[in-house]
Fold this sequence. Notes:
CATH architecture: Orthogonal Bundle
Oligomer: single chain
Structural class: mainly alpha
CATH topology: Arc Repressor Mutant, subunit A
Number of helices: 4
Low-confidence stretches: none
Order of helices and strands: HHHH
Helix content: 40-55%
Shape: globular
Amino acid sequence: MMGFYDKRHCPRGAGYSVLSPREREVLQLLCEGLRPGEIAKRLDITRRTLHNHLEAVYWALDVHSRLEAVLYAYRHKLVDK
């Protein structure tokens, strides 16, 4: 299943290609500078659901923070500016 990752199903650092469309959308919004509360509101999801999406993004990209995820996305040209 694409989406939420754990060590049993997807190796850490598997990369952008394994992110779900929603996770890619979350990453895009992070790169646009939206705060977590703003992202959750825009996507009409709970903060807990957003947290799960962020954890999946961090796991797949092998990063540990929002800043690292944004830097990774820009360095690898994964999101629109």
